[in-house]
């Protein structure tokens, strides 16, 4: 699915398919579990860390889970943040069924813990909470978990913000930074449990051999190596507010160069703000992954018709400005402009290249490194825009 589709579009596409079976409200946990495969039941057992039932046959496992799932809710709350609690609270407040559909990956998260199930109700897609889970949920005292939800939300948002700007962090460094920003002692095992559970719900980051990395990062090992090679450069010192803002799921760092690029596209093409913003945001993401200006121009050429040299020159100017002001993973959260002050600009801008051909839109021929630059400067391509 096109990564530039909005979450709303993704959900509408998802519910347009077969959403699930007809739900009978109140929903029975036994009826939900009997429809699942042995593998799916095993997944619930694993996620809830239920011991002593791994050897049971499917029917017996379903019966065991029917008893365990309502009692597991209190333990899950220690890993929840406010977002997950509020989703369950909203459905519980409507008698256990809601027609407000959340992201498909988040539906899967709840289903894989036996808490919510998707299906059709009154002719519309719905999410439903089994009656046994609903009763257990209503018995729990939210006030006892409020501070836990808030703490977990802060941990998760700070971590997501760091992944957005740094791309990758090793375990030890992540723990130290979260301790620094929260001003509290971090217990590694507890923090790791919260984070690993959040990974499955938000899908914003992934674990690797050394720590965690953003799901947008295409080559984690390369970024690790580049960051480790810059021993004299410390990570950019973001404020706590900056990281919390960047921790929002739909966050885009719309710098002045980003906004100017969007306006340039809209000035020259009949295109909505949202569409132009998607194009520029994709460019910034490619920049953080080490893309060259030539690669970015070719990528834009696949979406917009760039049919003269003046347009080509304008795009290259905006690509250059965006590149130099985008906070980059290879540069530990700095932009090239920030690092170039007091340092060699050449050293700052040396990033692992992403090779791509650039096409002269006038001749439709591939531009070689020694050919005249298509921007019309009169210089060789290798001495001009390719750099």
Automatic annotation (TrEMBL):
Record PANTHER family: ADENYLATE CYCLASE-ASSOCIATED CAP C-TERMINAL DOMAIN-CONTAINING PROTEIN, UPF0225 PROTEIN SCO1677
Organism: Paenibacillus aceris
Signal peptide: none
Domain of life: Bacteria
Name of this chain's protein: SEC-C motif-containing protein
Gene3D superfamilies: 3.10.450.50
One Pfam family linked to the record: SEC-C
């Amino acid at each position: 699915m096109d990564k530039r589709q909005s979450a709303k579009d993704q959900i509408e596409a998802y519910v347009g398919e077969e959403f699930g079976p007809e739900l009978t409200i109140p929903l029975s946990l036994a009826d939900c579990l009997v429809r699942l495969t042995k593998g799916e039941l095993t997944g619930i057992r694993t996620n809830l860390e239920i011991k002593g039932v791994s050897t049971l046959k499917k029917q017996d496992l379903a019966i065991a889970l029917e008893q365990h799932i309502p009692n597991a809710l209190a333990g899950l709350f220690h890993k929840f943040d406010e977002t997950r609690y509020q989703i369950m609270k909203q459905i519980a407040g409507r008698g256990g069924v809601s027609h407000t559909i959340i992201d498909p990956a988040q539906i899967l998260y709840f289903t894989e813990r036996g808490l919510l199930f998707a299906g059709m109700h009154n002719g519309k897609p719905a999410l439903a909470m089994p009656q046994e889970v609903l009763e257990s949920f209503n018995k729990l005292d939210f006030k006892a978990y409020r501070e836990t939800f808030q703490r977990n939300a802060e941990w998760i948002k700070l971590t997501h913000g760091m992944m957005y700007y740094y791309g990758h962090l090793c375990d030890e460094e992540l723990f130290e930074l979260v301790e620094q920003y929260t001003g509290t002692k971090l217990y590694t095992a507890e923090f790791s449990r919260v984070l690993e559970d959040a990974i499955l719900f938000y899908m914003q980051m992934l674990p690797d051999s050394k720590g965690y990395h953003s799901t947008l990062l295409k080559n984690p090992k390369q970024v690790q190596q580049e960051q480790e090679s810059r021993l004299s450069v410390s990570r950019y010192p973001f404020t706590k507010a900056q990281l919390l803002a960047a921790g929002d799921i739909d966050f885009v760092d719309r710098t002045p160069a980003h906004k100017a690029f969007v306006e340039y596209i809209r000035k020259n093409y009949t295109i909505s703000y949202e569409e132009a913003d998607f194009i520029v945001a994709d460019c910034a993401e490619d920049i953080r992954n080490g893309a060259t200006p030539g690669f970015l121009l070719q990528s834009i050429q696949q979406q917009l018709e760039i049919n003269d040299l003046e347009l080509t020159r304008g795009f290259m100017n905006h690509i250059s400005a965006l590149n130099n002001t985008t906070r980059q993973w290879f540069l530990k959260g700095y932009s090239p402009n920030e690092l170039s002050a007091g340092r060699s600009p050449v050293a700052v801008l040396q990033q692992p290249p992403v090779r791509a051909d650039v096409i002269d839109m006038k001749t439709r021929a591939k531009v070689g490194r020694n050919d005249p630059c298509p921007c019309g400067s009169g210089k060789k391509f290798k001495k001009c825009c390719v750099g």
